Amino acid sequence: MRIDIITVLPEMLQSPLGCSIIKRACDKGLVEIHVHNLRDYTLNKHRKVDDYPFGGEAGMVMQIEPIDRAISALKAERDYDEVIFTSPDGEQFDQPMANSLSLLNNIIILCGHYKGIDYRIREHLITREISIGDYVLTGGEIPAVVITDAVVRLIPGVLGDEQSALSDSYQDNLLAPPVYSRPASYKGWDVPPILLSGHEAKIAEWRYEQALERTRRLRPDLLDRK
Fold this sequence. Notes:
Elements: E1 2-7, H1 11-17, H2 20-27, E2 32-37, E3 50-51, E4 61-62, H3 64-75, E5 82-92, H4 95-101, E6 106-111, E7 116-117, H5 119-124, E8 128-131, H6 141-152, E9 185-186, E10 189-190, H7 200-218
Parallel strand pairs: 1-2, 1-6, 4-7, 5-6, 5-8
Antiparallel strand pairs: 3-4, 9-10
Helix pairs in contact: 1-6
């Protein structure tokens, strides 16, 4: 899988994309992540990529030309399954969406900034708009990292135990059950005996019941999607 991220702040992405699971996935050759500085695609001698909005509204708007040049340059090299714009008014990002994106070959993520992007970009160049929540951030870099992290960890071979991702919260619209580790008893706080029993079928049943109970209590809205 290849992910190309277009941004005006490439340095903001270096740390989160250069460590932990994402770095290991890149080192294994399971995913390629390329960060592109939008300023490299502007013809402005001062490397500006924004200008005042028509109509006199406050704030600055990302211009259409450098973004079009960036996306066109990438598309000239390969086909892309999706060109994603991170936007607070996009589709709500969730686990099923992460699952579907992880099956694609090549995606572009455009990070918004300033007041927003020229709307013609959204009309003619973007194939999908995604939001990570009902709030506004300074730019789209953090959402791009969130999307990338959620997608990359689902690619086969990225996690040491491929079954681990299947038991995460939100898979099957359920929250994950409680997990415990050694010691089995600490300050009188004991691990549920069923987990020490070695009875795989009963443990699986307990985990499902716990996941269902936690979902009913903490996120009952998820059960409406089942």
